[in-house]
Amino acid sequence: MTTAKKYLRTAIGAASFCLAAHAAGAGAPEKLALPLNGRTFDTTSIAFSGDGARICIGGADTNDMGESTVHLVLVDLAQRAVAWQKTISAPDGLALLDPVQCVAGSDRVYLLANAETSPSPALAQSRIYVYAFDLQGNRIAVAPLEIPAQSRYGYRIAETPDGLKVVGYMRDQDEDTERYGTFTMLLDRGLRPRGAPLFRKNGAYVLPPGARIVSDSVFLTGRFFPATVKKTDAGEYMTSRLRLDGGYIWSTRLPSATRLGVSAFVGDDGTNYSIGYMADKTMLAIVTPDGKALPPLAYPSPYCRSKALVRYHADLVAVRERCDAKGRALVSIDTATGNEHVIKPVADEPMYLAAKGDLWALLARDKKGHAFLYTAENGGL
After folding, report:
1. pLDDT tens-digit map of 311-357
2. Is the dihedral of CA 35, 39, 41, 47 positive or negative?
3. SS3 for the chain, per residue?
4. Cis peptide leading into 197, omega within 30 of 0?
5. What pLDDT is recorded for position 25?
């Protein structure tokens, strides 16, 4: 068995979820209509709660004028129903709100979002907001994170017993130079800071990176810029592991071929995946949680960008967009050979995918643009 197979056949989680309590059967996936427009809704996050009983869905709906509205949805799998949906506008004085990640916590639902001061990218500065709702949909708190920088961006959040961990980066600039750093911040259950943020002024990964908080570490994959660079600097494509308390663990450079149209993902165990494309080929690079880069793969493929990627049992499964713009497909990728094959657990077109242990969830749309959430357990992908 190859090294890649050894890592990718490791179980995602040890927990066992009770199917009769809250999830779909091992046969056909359960189907639930969602109050979302499948043609215009762009999903940025789907997450199971720790017990697998709920799913949060975060994303934005964009109209013909380019105006976007953020939606946060909570699904109760026990009741097979949408528990609630929230529409969230950009805070006063800000032009845009970009949802990054939702978390279905033990008794709360959180949303991390980055807000822009201007609709023009050349003029915009970014701000970070965190939202907290209870399980009945009541908003508990909303907090702007006060980080001393011209622009600040949130990477990821993770629930703790007494609040949240937040990891992000900051950027300052003058006429010719940009300066980058990262931060870690702790919030209490009311989204108030717990102590001072921890700053690392030694560079940062710019959005949109692959990022995930795993235990005491944050894993990052994407385009990295050092602490101080010229504005013309293109950065390097890398992956790193940092301790949340400020310690540095490792960094690894990734193949240059993956810089084209790259999509980066970090698995539950910290394995880093980068899927890029060039001409008619897909490039797949994998870095294990200890920083070891496996031999990269390049193989012919009709697919370009990847919207979501998960490990499910022994398989690597992705929602991928066809290069000919004829929609998306759910594909399984053999990490030893690069062979792809299409999976069709449902008839509708896939939009986004999530998995936790034996559970999986697929957001999909039918030909009329209606959005549906499909869920199942222990197989089907």
Report:
1. 998 889 999 999 999 999 999 999 888 889 999 999 999 999 999 99
2. positive
3. CCHHHHHHCCCCCCCCCCHHHHCCCCCCCEEEEEEEECCCEEEEEEEECCCCCEEEEEEEEECCCCCEEEEEEEEECCCCEEEEEEEECCCCCCCEEEEEEEEECCCEEEEEEEEECCCCCCCCCEEEEEEEEECCCCEEEEEECCCCCCEEEEEEEEEECCEEEEEEEEEEECCCEEEEEEEEEEEECCCCECCCCEEECCCEECCCCEEEEECCEEEEEEEEECCEEECCCCCEEEEEEEECCCCEEEEEECCHHHHCCCEEEECCCCCEEEEEEECCEEEEEEECCCCCECCCEEEECCEEEEEEEEEECCEEEEEEEECCCCCEEEEEECCCCCCEEEECCCCCEEEEEEEECCEEEEEEECCCCEEEEEEEECCCC
4. no
5. 42
User: What was the pLDDT predicted at 5?
Assistant: 38
What confidence score (pLDDT) does residue 381 get?
87
Q: What is the pLDDT of residue 205?
A: 95
86, exposed or middle or buried, with CB in 10 Å at 0-12, 13-18, 19+?
middle
314/215 Cα distance (integer angstroms): 23
Residue 12: predicted pLDDT: 30
Which single residue is written with the structure tokens 């750093």? 181
Residue 256's pLDDT is: 62
User: CB 237: neighbour CB atoms within 10 A?
Assistant: 22
Contacts of 1 (CB under 8 A, 6+ apart): 9
Q: Which of 187, 30, 18 is closest to 103 using CA atoms?
A: 187
pLDDT at 19: 33
Q: Which of 278, 282, 272 is nearest to 329 (CA)?
A: 282
Please tell me the pTM assigned to this model.
0.90
CB-side neighbour CA atoms (13 Å) of 183: 23
Residues whose CB is less than 8 angstroms from the CB of residue 19 and which lie 6 or more positions away in sequence, other chains included: 25, 26, 377, 378
Q: Residues 170, 284, 364, CA angle at the centre, nearest 5°?
A: 80
Distance CA 81, CA 85 (A): 11
- Spans in the chain with pLDDT lower than 50: 1-25, 258
Q: Which amino acid is at 126?
A: S
